[in-house]
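Checklist before submission:
- one chain only
- standard amino acids only
- sequence pasted in full

Submission:
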Amino acid sequence: MAREVQITFDCADPAGLAAFWAEALGYQLQDPPQGFESWEQALEAMGVPPESRNDASAVIDPEGTGPRLFFQRVPEPKQVKNRVHLDVRAAPGLAGDSRMAALEAEAERLVSHGGTRLQRYEPAAPLGAGHIVMADPEGNEFCLD
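Returned file contents:
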């Protein structure tokens, strides 16, 4: 039986990181519970104190096919390289110079939203298609592939 997957990020700023990943993946902020026009209204009604209202956030695929991304505040900062990372498929079906140009354009776009470009890997024969290693605003590595 197939299972549904959620990807969880430990972070310092759930709302900020959720906004970055929504932009990177074409996702959207998860809607507030039914009966509420905004998360602020829902959290107020639930009695969540203002200082705890950025303890969690989530983004979802508007098409309903990709996994939900959940962001939870933790007290400690990121300390080491990720053991698991996301590959953002920014140039599907492209090869060679056109592939790398598409990856460069996406890297530039994500840098304008708070990402950091870390390293470019050139295409290498026979299987290496080339990719760009990036980091989100809190330093979590991911690849533009």
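Reviewer check: The CA atoms of residues 36 and 45 lie 9 Å apart.
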